[in-house]
Design a protein that fits this description.
heterodimer, A: mainly alpha, ABC transporter involved in vitamin B12 uptake, BtuC, 14 helices, 71% helix, B: ABC transporter involved in vitamin B12 uptake, BtuC, 13 helices
Chain lengths: 345, 339
C-alpha cells in the first residue's frame, strides 16, 4: 500500500472504505482532551465564588451553591467562545486551502467587514429585528464582498486577491464609521459593544444558532474534504482527478462565509483566529486536510477561549476584549509567516 | 518603446499646474471658512480677515475656531502629500504611503504613550511632532527591514503585509494603554480617529518647524531624486550619494508625517492619492512635483474636511473617514491595474 508509507491506514466496511492517519487521530484525541480540560478550567476561573467542584457539578447536573454563577454567567460565555473560535478556525482553514495561500484569513479578505457592515446596518436601521436575522444578513453581506473581491482580482490563488480584500476592508470600515456617526446614539452604543469583539455581552439566545451554523458549515467542509485535497495540487490537476471544481469552490466559499458571518454576528470581530488556527494545527497536529479541519476547529476554539479567559481574569475587574489579546498573538504569527515567505512574495 | 514615453509635459506646463493648484487651494480655503453650522457670507469673511472686530460674534467664531482648523488641515495635508511623494520616489512604489507603511501607527503610539506619561516628564507641545516622527520612523524602520529581506528584495506585497502587521501591533498597544488609563482615553479619543474639531493654535504652530525642515530637505534632494529615476547604478554614476539620499529622504518623510499625526491624528490615504498625480502633472521632475504634491495634499485635506463638516446635516464626521472613503478605491484601482 503506497499510502501506508505516509502513515495512512484504511479500513473497509463492505462497499465503503475509510482512510485515516493514526498519528493525526491520536493527536486530535489528545487535543480534544486538552480542550475539554481548558473549558472546565474556564468555567471554574473568575472573580465570582465558584471553583472546579462547582464547574463539575454544573456539568453533571448536580445542583451546587454556585450554580447561578457558573450556569448563567460563565457557561454561555464559554460555549460561545468555543463555537465562534471553531467557526473562525474552520473558515480560515477552508479559505487557505481554496486560495492555496497561507496568508488568507476571513479578516484580510474583507468577508468579516462585509458581514459587520450588514449586521450594523441591521442593528441601527431595524433595532427590533429578531436576533436570528443577524447571521443571515451578515452572510449576505459577506458573500457580496467575496464576489466583489473575486471579480476585481479575477484569480483566486494570486496574492492580488488578498490585496484587493485588504482594500475592500478599508473601504467598508470607513463606511461602518460613517454609519456609526450618523445614527442614533442609543443604537450606536449597542453596535459599539458588539463591534469590540468582546464576549462579555454574550446573548444566550444566540447560542443554538451559533452551534447550528458550526455544524452546518463544518459538515459542508467535511463533505468537500477530498476535493479540497485534490485542489491543493492545482486547479487543472483537480479537474483531471475528477473533482467538480466549480462545485467545490462554491461549497468552500459558502461554508466559510456562513461561519465567518455567524461568528461575527454572535461575538463581534475576533481578528486573526482564522490565520492562527490552521498554522498552529500544521505545527502541532499535521497538515492533511481532514486533520487540518479537525485541528483548526479545536485550536480556534481553544484560542478564543484562552484569549477570553485571559482578558477577563488578568486585569480583573477590568475586562480586556478577546479581540485585542488575539491580535497581539496574530501579529507575531503574521510577521513569522511573511519571514518564511520572504523569498517568494 | 511606444512614442508616448517620449512626450514629456513641457516645463512651463508644470509650473502652470502649480499656479492652478495655488488658486484651487486658496478657493477651497475660503470655502472651508464659509461652510459650517453657521453659514457666513463672503463679506463677513473678508471683513473678519481685514478688520477684525473682537465684539463681533461671527468674527470671533472665524478667528478662534475655523481659522486654526483650516490651518491644521492645510499644514497636515501638505505634510502628508510631501511625505507620500518622498516615500513613493525613494521606494519606487505607487502604494507607498505613510499610513500603509506604519508611519502613522508608530507616530500615534508614540503620542499616546507620551500622553499617558506623568505630567512631570511629559513632552511639551513643541516636542510632540518630533516625538511622533521618532515613533513613526521606528515602526517604519522595522517594516522596511522586514520587507527588504529575501531574494526578491523590496516588494509591494511584503511592504503592505508588514505595514498591516506592525500597524496592527501598534494599534493593539494603543488600545491596551487606553484601556488601562481612562484619562489618556479622554484626551486622545477624537484625535485618534482623525477628527479636526478643536484644533488649537499651539498645535498648529508646533507643526510648522518640522514641516519646514522636511520641505527644505525634500527640495534639496529633488535633483538627486530625479537622477535616481534612471536606476540606482546610473544615479551612482552621476555622483548621487545613494545611501545619504535615502536616509535623509526617509527621515524627512517621517518628520513630515509626524508633524501631521501630532496635529490632526492618523489620517490615511492623502499621500496615496496626490503624489502619483502630482508627479505626472509636473513632467516627472521632482522639484515641481514636491511643490505640487504639497499643495495638492493641502487642498485634498481641506476638501475632505469641508465634506466631513457638511455631508451630514447637524453632525460632523471625522476627517480621516472621508479620506479613507476616497483613498481605499484608489488603492483598489492601483492594485487591480498591476498585473
Amino acid at each position: 500500500m503506497e499510502a501506508a508509507a505516509f502513515g495512512y491506514r484504511s479500513v473497509r466496511f463492505g462497499p465503503f472504505s475509510l482512510r485515516f492517519h493514526l498519528g493525526h487521530c491520536l493527536l486530535s484525541v489528545v487535543f480534544a482532551v486538552i480542550l475539554l480540560g481548558s473549558a472546565i478550567a474556564a468555567l471554574a476561573i473568575g472573580s465570582g465564588r465558584a471553583g472546579i467542584a462547582d464547574a463539575l457539578a454544573f456539568l453533571t447536573g448536580v445542583s451546587s451553591p454556585a450554580h447561578e454563577v457558573v450556569g448563567s454567567l460563565r457557561a454561555p460565555r464559554v460555549a460561545m467562545a468555543l463555537a465562534c473560535g471553531a467557526m473562525l478556525g474552520l473558515s480560515g482553514a477552508a479559505l487557505q486551502a481554496l486560495t492555496r495561500n497561507g496568508l488568507a484569513d476571513p479578516g484580510l479578505l474583507g468577508v468579516r467587514e462585509g458581514a459587520s457592515l450588514a449586521v450594523i446596518a441591521t442593528i441601527l436601521g431595524w433595532p427590533d429585528a429578531p436576533l436570528y436575522l443577524r447571521p443571515i444578513v451578515g452572510m449576505a453581506g459577506g458573500l457580496a464582498v467575496a464576489f466583489v473581491a473575486m471579480s476585481i482580482a479575477r484569480s483566486l490563488s494570486q496574492i492580488r486577491f488578498i490585496l484587493v480584500g485588504i482594500g475592500i476592508s478599508w473601504f467598508l470600515s470607513a463606511i461602518v464609521a460613517l454609519i456609526l456617526v450618523s445614527a442614533d446614539i442609543d443604537n450606536v452604543q449597542a453596535a459599539m459593544i458588539w463591534m469590540a469583539g468582546s464576549l462579555s455581552g454574550v446573548q444566550p439566545a444566540l447560542l443554538p444558532l451559533a452551534w447550528t451554523c458550526l455544524v452546518l458549515g463544518g459538515g459542508m467542509l467535511v463533505l468537500a474534504v477530498r476535493a479540497a485535497e485534490a485542489n491543493l495540487l492545482g486547479g487543472m490537476t483537480a479537474i483531471g482527478l475528477g473533482v467538480r471544481t466549480a462545485r467545490y469552490r462554491l461549497t468552500a466559499i459558502a461554508a466559510s462565509v456562513l461561519m465567518t458571518a455567524a461568528a461575527v454576528s454572535c461575538a463581534g470581530s475576533l481578528g486573526f483566529v482564522g490565520l492562527l488556527a490552521p498554522h498552529l494545527c500544521r505545527f502541532l497536529i499535521g497538515s492533511g486536510q481532514p486533520a487540518l479541519l479537525a485541528g483548526s476547529a479545536m485550536i480556534g476554539a481553544w484560542l478564543v477561549l484562552l484569549a477570553d479567559t485571559i482578558g477577563r481574569t488578568l486585569f480583573a475587574p477590568l475586562q480586556i476584549p478577546a479581540g485585542i489579546v488575539l491580535s497581539v498573538l496574530g501579529v507575531f504569527l503574521l510577521v513569522g509567516l511573511i519571514w518564511q515567505r520572504r523569498h517568494h512574495i | 518603446m511606444r512614442a508616448a514615453h517620449f512626450i514629456n509635459v513641457p516645463k512651463v506646463t508644470g509650473w502652470a499646474f502649480l499656479l492652478l493648484a495655488v488658486g484651487l487651494t486658496f478657493a477651497l480655503a475660503l470655502l472651508h471658512l464659509a461652510v459650517g453650522a453657521r453659514g457666513m457670507p463672503p463679506s463677513v469673511l473678508i471683513d473678519a480677515l481685514i478688520s477684525f472686530d473682537s465684539t463681533n460674534f461671527d468674527h470671533r467664531v472665524l478667528v478662534s475656531l475655523r481659522l486654526p482648523r483650516l490651518c491644521a488641515a492645510l499644514l497636515s495635508g501638505a505634510a502628508l502629500g510631501m511625505a507620500g511623494l518622498l516615500l513613493q520616489s525613494l521606494l519606487r512604489n505607487p502604494l507607498a504611503e505613510p499610513h500603509l507603511l506604519g508611519l502613522n501607527a508608530g507616530a500615534s503610539l508614540a503620542v499616546v504613550v507620551a500622553t499617558a506619561l506623568p505630567a512631570a516628564i511629559q513632552p511639551t507641545v513643541l516636542e510632540r511632532p518630533f516625538l511622533a516622527a521618532g515613533g513613526g520612523a521606528l515602526v517604519f524602520a522595522a517594516v522596511f527591514a522586514l520587507s527588504s529581506a529575501g531574494r526578491l528584495g523590496l516588494t509591494v506585497t511584503k511592504l503592505i503585509f508588514c505595514g498591516i502587521a506592525l500597524s496592527a501591533l501598534s494599534s493593539a498597544l494603543v488600545s491596551a494603554v487606553l484601556l488601562l488609563d481612562q484619562e489618556t482615553l479622554e484626551a486622545v479619543r477624537f484625535w485618534l480617529v482623525g477628527d479636526l474639531a478643536g484644533t488649537s493654535w499651539s498645535q498648529v504652530s508646533a507643526a510648522l518647524l518640522p514641516l519646514c525642515l522636511a520641505g527644505v530637505a525634500a527640495a534639496a534632494l529633488s535633483p538627486h531624486l530625479d537622477a535616481m529615476t534612471l536606476g540606482d547604478a546610473s544615479a551612482a554614476g552621476l555622483g548621487v550619494p545613494l545611501k545619504a539620499t535615502r536616509l535623509i529622504g526617509l527621515a524627512a518623510a517621517a518628520l513630515a508625517s509626524g508633524a501631521a499625526v501630532s496635529t490632526v491624528g492618523p489620517i490615511g490615504f492623502v499621500g496615496l492619492i496626490v503624489p502619483g498625480l502630482a508627479f505626472r502633472l509636473s513632467g516627472k521632475r521632482h522639484l515641481p512635483a514636491v511643490a505640487l504634491s504639497t499643495l495638492g495634499g493641502a487642498a485634498l485635506l481641506v476638501l475632505a474636511d469641508i465634506a466631513a463638516r457638511s455631508l451630514l446635516p447637524g453632525r460632523e464626521v471625522a476627517t480621516g473617514i472621508m479620506t479613507a472613503l476616497v483613498g481605499a478605491p484608489v488603492f483598489l484601482l492601483i492594485v487591480a491595474r498591476r498585473s
